[in-house]
Write a structure and sequence with these properties.
It is built from 4 helices and 17 strands. By secondary structure, the protein is an alpha+beta fold.
Length: 269
């Protein structure tokens, strides 16, 4: 039996599994089985965790399809919520979480039962404008952003998030696996609602359309703040709810603030 905790951040849900509990299993296969919505527990991925210190841990993330991801901002925040309960962390405490994209410091802003508010240092993002040519020859302008994992951010001019009359899900599915991105990419669609608020839709690598993404929110904020006239702090509103991004600009670290909640514990075969 494998013990797990299920958590979500703005509807982006993850299982937290201790590495020792998963020992002897193929993590990719285990992730596909447990994350299946109808025959498994259901989740966007599994964060495999090991303690490395009193307030520190290491995580390795597998997406729902079994693929390895460098980092998930929301997944990291879910792990911070799990750690906070495990060690009874209080507001102001900082938790050090090592990911495949590097060390992330999570500061507990508030804690109420199984729910926490967390500010995560997301590192220094890099970005550059880029154009992708679709199979039909249409050119899609966007911004390539790295927040420790890859993103392609597209600004749209309508609240339906469509691109040249096509649903964002269809465009996202094609760009995610485009040959320009050998390791695939996350795709975000941004509608600027005002100087301090953007709407967001996400096609996540290894998952598909998803309700929220911490790194996707960070990447979309990076593009919006750097190139689309928005100002920090910026509210990023995805279907799963809002998150807040604070960023001083190129060369500085970006900070992401949002909620996470523990929702279930159990054991799986």
């Amino acid at each position: 039996m494998i013990s797990f905790t299920k958590a979500h951040a703005c509807g982006n849900d993850f299982l937290v599994v201790m590495e020792e509990a998963a020992a002897g299993n193929d993590w990719a296969g285990l992730t596909r089985r447990l994350c299946e919505r109808n025959t498994g527990i259901g989740a966007d991925g599994i964060e495999f965790f090991a303690w490395t210190g009193p307030k520190a841990g290491r995580i390795r993330l597998h997406n729902a399809d079994g693929s390895i991801a460098e980092i998930s901002g929301n997944g990291t925040r879910c792990v911070a919520a799990w750690m906070a309960e495990a060690i009874d962390a209080q507001p102001g405490d900082e938790l050090a979480i090592t990911t495949d994209a590097g060390l992330r410091i999570c500061r507990i802003e508030a804690r109420d039962g199984h729910r926490v508010e967390v500010t995560t240092g997301m590192g220094i993002p890099s970005f550059a404008p880029r154009t992708v040519t679709l199979a039909n020859g249409e050119k899609i302008a966007g911004v390539e952003v790295s927040t420790g994992n890859p993103h392609f951010v597209i600004r749209v001019d309508n609240p339906e998030f469509s691109v040249s009359g096509k649903p964002w899900q269809k465009v996202g599915a094609e760009i995610c696996v485009h040959s320009d991105f050998p390791n695939q990419t996350n795709v975000e669609f941004v509608y600027v609602r005002g100087p301090q608020e953007i709407g967001l839709r996400i096609f996540e690598r290894g998952v598909g359309p998803t309700s929220s993404s911490g790194t996707g929110s960070s990447a979309s904020a990076t593009a919006s703040l750097a190139l689309h006239g928005c100002v920090s702090p910026l509210t990023v509103v995805a279907p799963g709810g809002p998150q807040t991004v604070a960023w001083s600009g190129s060369g500085s670290e970006l900070f992401l603030t949002g909620p996470a909640a523990l929702i279930a514990r159990g054991e799986a075969w």
